[in-house]
Amino acid sequence: DSVTLTDSVLTLLCAIAAELEPDTLDRARPLRSQVDLDSMDWLNFLVSLHERFGVTIPEADYARLVSFNDVLDYLVVRC
Predict the structure, then answer these.
(1) Which are the contacts of 36, defined by CB distance < 8 A and separation ≥ 6?
(2) Alpha carbon distance 2, 16 (integer Å)
(3) CB 18 within 8 A of CB 59
(4) What are the pLDDT tens digits along the chain (79 aa)?
(5) What is the pLDDT of residue 65?
(6) Euclidean distance between CA atoms 2 and 49, whole angstroms
(7) 63 contacts 32 by C-beta, under 8 angstroms
(8) DSSP 3-state assignment of 30?
């Protein structure tokens, strides 16, 4: 369900961005501007999504995954 998906994605994101406080996350704003994620952190986050959910995210789709909501929407369609 969507609550479990949301919590799982937040857990993965917090594992990479330890400074993130989930309650302050604006789910509609670009993630990388809210959380200090460099390109390697972002890639690690996407890999962790693949490992957790078994979803392959092609590089061509990376640009679509900007906000937290974008990531959730992407996973809902593919999980």
Answers:
(1) 17, 19
(2) 21
(3) no
(4) 677 999 999 999 999 998 899 999 999 999 988 988 899 999 999 999 999 999 999 999 999 999 999 999 999 999 8
(5) 96
(6) 15
(7) no
(8) strand
Burial of 55 (0-12, 13-18, 19+ CB in 10 A): middle
Q: What is the DSSP string of 55-72?
A: ----GGGGGG--BHHHHH
> What residues form DSSP beta bridges with 30?
67
The pair of three-digit structure tokens given for residue 77, joined into one six-digit string: 């369609």
Half-sphere exposure of 19 (CA within 13 A, CB side): 6
Provide the strand spans (E) within the chain.
none
Q: Is 42 within 8 Å of 32 (Cβ atoms)?
A: yes
User: In whole angstroms, how far apart are CA 1 and each of 7, 49, 56?
Assistant: 10, 16, 20
